[in-house]
Amino acid sequence: MLCVIFVKFLNKINLKRYLLGSVLTTGVALAFSQNSTEVIAILVIYLATILNQFLLVEVIMELVTERASNLSRTYRVNKIKVALLFVLKLLILFGALSLGIHLMGKRVLIPLLNYVVLIFVLGLNLKDAE
After folding, report:
1. Which H/E stretch holds residue 102?
2. pTM listed for this prediction
3. Residue 96 near residue 48 (C-beta atoms within 8 A)
4. What is the torsion angle, in degrees rounded to the nearest 10, for the CA atoms of residue 54, residue 12, residue 59 and residue 18?
5. Which residues are CB-contacts of 64 (< 8 A; sequence separation ≥ 6)?
6. pLDDT at 70
């Protein structure tokens, strides 16, 4: 399932610009780390953020694009799939942030700000619906 989500994600974003922007912002966050434990925490939260964004794109495509491509009024959103993807997104996000808080304490604000910036990076690199 994640492979299918990954392929859809690659088709919906400008991958080169997205990776460049996300690596640059994560590099800035890594520059603020004080030790190797904080580096690990920032990288784990970065990977969780990328996975979270894969799932976000999948949910958006399920809710918007699939309905737009099917012009009949009988199309129904797969509510169970959408709900499970949201639960998975929350589990990934809370798990990564819990680990970050455990490893970094109050300094978890650094990867949290990186998470917010990465949302904007994703938004800027989305391709138009075809």
Report:
1. helix 79-104
2. 0.83
3. yes
4. 40
5. 129
6. 59
